[in-house]
Amino acid sequence: MNHTSKLEYDELGYTIIRNAIDMDLACEVEAHVHWLRKKYPDLRPEHLHHNLLVDDLFIHRLVGDSRLLNIVEEFLGQNIALFAAHYIAKPPFTGQAVLWHQDVTYWPLEPMEVISIWLAATDSKVENGCMRVIPGTQNKILLLQDELQKVSDCKNVLGSGIYPSQINDTDAVDIELNAGDVSLHNPRIVHGSNPNTSDTWRIGLTIRYIPTSTLVKIEGHRCILLRGESDAKVMNKYENRPIFNPQKHMKFNGWEKWSWK
After folding, report:
1. Residue 214 has what DSSP assignment?
2. Among candidates 227, 253, 225, 228, which has minimal Cα distance to 241?
3. What is the pTM of this model?
């Protein structure tokens, strides 16, 4: 990551890094989503949440990729953990929208030191519902959950969001990415996305990284230690790396290296 990207992130609340991972790995991420769809046929592909992924060997391999951790280290330092990962895969024609929101509204982290990477496994464009951000809103007041609009229409990934009357989206920016690109966004920035009404998939993984000095205040929540050391004063629970099991895990390039601890 270059110095310009860091300055852009600090000023605007987001930045884009092109070709963060290679196309072979991006294709494996796409394949992993379709593998998970077969494993969890009753779930919408926008709702492949952390609790389903934290035991998945490919996720351990992906979120711990040195190229991603090198980017994150510029923001968080050398002791890095995964707080949460979540596939939001929007199928053609019926992909759900994501209401305008601020991530920190939903996250019980102390302190609120976290950075989100949105990794594109397929091209993410306006037509298939790419992420949108409102630059500069990371400096605005944080809305609490009881101040949000509640929705239950099954058309949205989230069950709540900021009231439209509180949003001025004239300055919204479409974060268009090619497969293999990533965007980084501040957890306080207002962002969302439109539904996918195109004939192509929009597949991406949100990866929430924290320094090991940040406490996750969710009982029983499992993090993954990725680089450096845990903090003895912070009582986070870290999931052990799985051993490859063909009954439980998708094969991926180099899986043989992960067949032992």
Report:
1. S
2. 225
3. 0.95
